[in-house]
Input
Amino acid sequence: MLYSDIASVFDRIEGTGSRLEMTSILSELFGTLDPASLRNVVYLSQGKLHPDFFPQKLGMSDKLVLKAISMTSGFSESTVEEMWVKEGDPGTVAEMLMGMKKQTALFSEPLTLDRVMKGLLSIESSDGKDSQERKMKLLANMLHDSGPTEARYLCRIVTGRMRVGAGSMTILDALASSYADKSDRPEIERAFNVTCDMGAVAETLAAGGMDAVRNVSVKVGSPIKVMLAERLPSLGEVMTKMDGRCGMEFKYDGIRVQAHISEAGVRLYSRRLEDLTSNFPDVASSLRAALKGKEAIVEGECVSVDLRDGRMLPFQEVTHRRRKHGMENAVKDYPVKIFLFDILHTDGRDTTLLPYPERREILSSAFRDSENIVMSNMNVISSPEEADIFFADALAAGCEGIMAKSLSPESVYRAGSRGFLWIKYKKDYRSDLIDTYDLAVIGAFYGMGKRKGRYGALLMAAYDQEMQSYTTICKLGTGFDDAFLDSMPELLDRHKKAERPANVDSKMVPDVWFDPYVILEVTGAELSLSPIHTTASGVFKEDTGLGIRFPRFTGKVRDDKGPEEATSASEVMDIYGMQTK
Ligand code: ATP
Output
């Protein structure tokens, strides 16, 4: 398979904003591939060589890529760099220059998918002395045989900028359309949700059909998409929705961790599938030591505690554990406990399809006593009055609220879905603001006055899961301290786009566009109908969307969330619905 055929498909996808069209372009390509190639193309379409949870080590610096472009195109390094300063993306520079190469290739070898995979894997595994030079040459070797479009995507992949706009739901649609029936789509999605490995699911489907997909199950070492909660505005409504009886747990304000414990060791994953094992080595070793069985997958919230009295400390404390360096000191200075709330696998048995009370029982007896492993506090609650008392207890203990969990026989662990089997209720709901929103930054406006020369405000978006597009909901200019204003270019500029990304729906035009990638937590006074914002456009009033009034950055960069986990348009509609009731 020639890489140029794949690159031209990426190009067509990037050029369309229509999910239906993306699906049909992708499914046409998928249908022509053998299972192993399909797996690789699925990874490449996301800019990866492996599943999401695999540490991605491809990252080449822009400067190194520019060197490779200069070497292959024959343009001087300073010319290439000047273009890069203007364009902001080495992929665009490569595309422009490969079209007017000064050097004609004497020896040319076709650039196949296999060759690209081997080349990229070699770049990834180069380390030690001279590795930078080797990486540069490996890339130059591929650019040598690339046309403009192939060069654009190669450079985007190695610099971590590959976002052609086809989200995971579109890829699942395309897989169903190439290899199965539309009605099989939920089962293909289930296989993805319990493995988080779209490439493996694609290969399984292409090689073994739906029978093989149905056999895909939870595995230690392969993270599972987390289950999420809905929200309701009062404890009374929570109790009614739960038919008057539920399991109620403290909602701890820390970092969610999914622990995969095996005899070989322990791996901890964030809800964004990052490997957090090195951030919580103390938790990992305690889990291994305290587990009675051989293997398990459990979930819990890591919270900072004061060792003198065991008090839980605010969320900001545990974020000190998210650093890359100086972990030894951080472990000493910021002790944590993990509050376990679910079990998804134990000794060869998938427990995700058991009801919550059964899972809870298995979890409670799975570990020996341990100082830093604690079961989340849970009570069976049967009246709004009991709920009020439990909620007050949760706040007094330093938690942000409660999680109500269904006790019904259907209360399975729904990987990757947000539903009413779990309902959250937080203290914020008691003040004038309903909740915080986790919004994607999709644009920036240059500052004026004191903020001249910096970004002064950001254009923020919710994620419309149905349309797979990012819809604007507010212009955010409040809540930024000087340190955050200074850090914005480093945080955002690598996601700059020359034009509005195809998966962004916006009536406002910022000074700079970004690919939706960075998620910030935002509070606000309330939602109101807005003619300039595109979230829930036309739902409550023709040609009018919803906007957040008086938005303010809380200071939390949600780097534990991927862009598709931004607050969804349907959650925004629910919040608006609650507000106008
Ligand atoms: P939030 O910003 O409110 O945490 P979210 O979108 O991150 O929202 P939600 O599903 O809305 O996720 O809230 C559930 C989160 O609450 C979980 O992801 C987990 O991190 C945390 N949590 C704390 N305590 C519990 C508990 N006892 N059971 C389940 N989740 C809990």
